[in-house]
Amino acid sequence: MGVVIESEVWELNPAIYVFILIACFLSISLFPHFSNRTTSSLSDHNVVASSSSSFLKFQRKFLLVYSLSSVLEGFWWVFGEYEMVNAGLSKEQMVFALSAGCLASLFVGTFLGIFSDALGHKKFCLLFYVLHFVIGVWKTLAAHPAIWITSICLSLSSSISSFSFETWMVVEHEKHGYRQDGLNDTFWLMVFSESASLIGSQMLANWVVGPGSKKSFVSHSFIPILLAMINIALTARGLPESPERGRVKEHRAAFLSLICGDKRIWLLACAEASLHFAIAVFWILWAPTTVADGRELKLGLLYPCFLGARMLGSTAFPWSLSGLLSLRIEDCLLYEFIGAGLDIGVLVALFCSFQALVGLISPTLGRLRTMYVPNEFRAGMISLSLAPANAAALCVLIQGGYYRNLNNSIIMAFAALGLLLAAGCMHMLKNLGKQPHQNWHKL
To answer: Which residues are listed as membrane-spanning (predicted)?
Structure first.
């Protein structure tokens, strides 16, 4: 007896979006009432930096710039796929363009973090905007720009975004002497605002494309050009810059000496690489996986649902540090990686749960990096951890997308195993014991 696939289009229940919004609001608003952070624990401090006007001013400026940067990057994510389809590219040509971007990230982006640590993170944030500005201008002037060159530039800018903004924020935060609880809040707010900004970028892309065949009067290149110019102005004049670190050669030698000699950093880098690979696999395969059984659905409605789930997961981060659970941060990540690995293995039913856990894992990893990695090597460590993830993603694109030697279920299984491997790294990191690079203030 054959299976009959209904022809009607399957849509999400609108109540899901309402539930995510209400859950985010309750998680944020109820946390102060249940948190173990009391005013008595802060009585020894004359000024609480997390609530001071100077810290809030710094945090708001940074989150504004980071959110606009996320909109800029997310716009090309959404519109780039539409552009390749509209240009009539075959699947093999699309895989070739994406593979070119992975190669650039693997052989160039891996080392950009080391240069960022040595030369200054603000310069690389500006380079991120310049790359997007150049792409926008080039697409405006060229009738048929090369897709693979665009993919390379966007991949390099994505690599820069993965380490430059976070490292810049952490360096400036500690240089001004703000408390660590304020840094923890900024970590989860970064994930929250990034997810919200990506939803906003989808709205912008849909507005530019227009309903059906009707296009907006605004050129698709005008929005990234405008956003890049605004971000360049805000970054160059509105935010502080740390002094230059020194010569690249001396910094590289010190970086290799520290990174190669500390097992804790290697375990942390392995966990981060597994997470990056799993996220890449998810965004490559979620659409073909959900329609694999022949169903029809509006993919544009699932995208904000996933990002909303990530926003909800990020709001759980301060709860995990509040003392309600007597767990070390390595234990938290251990259970989170196991949950993410099991979720991605079940595929469609738990995609939202996977994204929620990603929203929780991302700021937790940011806090763990602050504990184990010196700030002067932070960007280099992040970019180095991207190398195995980019190599694995390139293998997936070639073997699965071009030669079609791997089916989607096998690729998903590899991603799930990677997350379980990351959980094992967290267990080993806990057993090695803490050796933070600096003394932490009590939360």
So the answer is: 15-34, 62-79, 94-115, 124-141, 186-205, 217-239, 265-286, 301-321, 333-357, 377-398, 410-429
